[in-house]
Amino acid sequence: MTRGARNPAMGATSLRDSLSGAAAGSAPDADVIGSVYVDAAHLAKLEFQARGLGFVRPAPVRSVLAGAHASRLRGRGLNFEEIRAYLPGDDVRHLDWRASLRQGKPLVRTYTEERDRPLLMVVDQRIGMFFGSRRAFKSVVAAELAALAIWMGFQAGDRVGGVLFDDTRTIRLRPLRSRARIKALFGAIERMNRAMYAQSPARTAYGQLDAALEGVLQIASHDYLICIASDFAGAGERTQKLLRELSAHNDVVAAMVYDPLWKYMPAHRALVVSEGHLQVELRIQNERVRAPLTSLFEGRTAEVAQLLAASGVPLMPVSTAEPTVEQVRRLFGARTRPVQGSGL
């Protein structure tokens, strides 16, 4: 587990260094909101940037939901209404052949689309997410992903809720269609996010990911849309089993948040990492140090991708180096032009 990194591209200080003296629960400076920490106001502002994005409407070819992934997202369910006589223009796929044979005339089954499909956002705020070398910490990216998904669901008319977890606790908020629920979600994310700090004695609780997914199972019975934002630290066989159970009756999408430092390590600088009270300098200019670290990252990424594929869950890799909104637009495909005044 690492907390913060001194990035050569950022000069003498890093994101972590800017908060090295911050205490748990203290209010961060405004200039670190959106990079090291988030607050409810920052997440609320993403409402306008989520416009034009959606999970289940016809996705452009460039969307992560196009092709193989499209069939995995079922969208809203259908409620059976009645069997009635066939009328010109009715979809012949809705013909009820058994009833038609019994009555001696063509009959069709009619359905209405369910009013909404609950969205449940799973947000990882464990101490291992308190790391970033470029634009933002992984914990910030996960929070921004959660906010965008919540706004996408809310704008589609769906109920929204969440399962939020850190190293010691899990918070469950059942889906409701109300701005009060969104406010409660963003407030809970902010409190978990601000509880992390560089000198924290906390250690990543790898079992918390599975505990959070077990909590999701207790809420999501069927026809939910479940979005997970995490680095998937600690994912294993139990995680795969839980994801399979969830995806059997629900739609599940996983965003794996990663920092590109581990993939593209500078070959000419040393890297200082911290685990709270201790700091270690990794001389990554030495190939014998850099190569094993790069191999470890690539191997772990491949393991998570394989685990998700075996669970039938689409994987979205999301980097800390690029703006979260831009990555989501690229992955899902924007359907309308950006709203004027939204900053896009």
What would your notes on this structure say?
This protein is α/β, with parallel strands linked by helices and 344 residues long. The chain has two domains: 8-70 and 116-332, von Willebrand factor, type A domain (Rossmann fold), CATH 3.40.50.410; 78-113, no CATH class. It has helices at residues 40-44, 46-49, 97-103, 138-155, 179-194, 208-219, 237-249, 287-311, 324-332, and strands at 78-85, 107-113, 119-124, 160-165, 170-176, 225-230, 251-258, 271-274, 279-282, 315-319. It has a six-stranded mixed beta sheet with strand order 5-4-3-6-7-10, sandwiched between helices. The two termini are 34 Å apart. The model is unreliable at 5-21, 57-72 and 335-344 (pLDDT under 50).
Write the layout of secondary structure elements.
Layout: H1 40-44, H2 46-49, E1 78-85, H3 97-103, E2 107-113, E3 119-124, H4 138-155, E4 160-165, E5 170-176, H5 179-194, H6 208-219, E6 225-230, H7 237-249, E7 251-258, E8 271-274, E9 279-282, H8 287-311, E10 315-319, H9 324-332
Parallel strand pairs: 3-4, 3-6, 6-7, 7-10
Antiparallel strand pairs: 1-2, 4-5, 8-9
